[in-house]
Design a protein that fits this description.
The chain has 182 residues and is α+β, with helices and mostly antiparallel strands. Helices cover 37% and strands 26% of the residues. The protein is elongated and about 65 Å long.
Length: 182
């Protein structure tokens, strides 16, 4: 792969042998292995679940987690990045919230489209949680739109993926969207 990166540098008109670029192919390969770790099933995070009510209190209200993600557009291999809002209504299990961030990062760490990214995250978490409802909203800036092509800076693409109560119960969906201010 290092040789291919060196060839790319030469093809775009730079000199892959100049001092500042000598180690660039090695650094790019290392970065790709980290950035695209979502292809390695061995790196998929384990999801820690806890029995709901184990501590004497059973929780049946909406739980929301907000975080940030970075991914790469599969069409141009440039980044898209933004915020996620994950929510669920617990059934018999609750999740350690750090696991939500780890699952988001894992699925974002491959070439993606935002629509598929949301579906993969929700499907993975729903399979484990078996909750009464699960929702994910992704708001992202796409550099393929900002730095090339149309070159429109600052816009966001918003997608949602909802199951259970969030999909079929208008009140639950409205509460979630109001809480995240969408």
């Amino acid at each position: 792969m290092e040789n291919r990166i060196k060839q790319i540098l030469d093809e775009i008109g730079d000199d892959s042998n100049r001092e500042g670029l000598i180690d660039t192919p090695k650094r790019v390969v290392k970065m790709y292995k980290e950035t695209f770790r979502g292809y390695d099933k061995e790196q998929k995070p384990n999801i820690t679940l806890f029995n709901n009510g184990k501590d004497g209190v059973s929780y049946d209200q909406m739980i929301i987690d907000k975080g940030y993600f970075y991914s790469h557009c599969e069409h141009h291999m440039v980044p898209f990045f933004g915020e996620y809002y994950f929510a669920y209504i617990p059934g018999d299990k609750i999740i350690g919230l750090s696991k939500v961030a780890r699952i988001v990062d894992y699925y974002a760490s491959k070439l993606q489209i935002q629509e598929r990214l949301g579906k993969e995250i929700v499907d993975a978490l729903d399979e484990e949680l078996k909750s009464n409802g699960i929702a994910l909203v992704l708001k992202a800036r796409h550099l393929c739109k900002e730095m090339r092509g149309v070159k429109k800076v600052g816009g966001e693409m918003v997608t949602s993926e909802m199951k259970g109560a969030f999909r079929y119960d208008k009140a639950a969906r409205t509460e979630f969207l109001n809480l995240i201010k969408l």
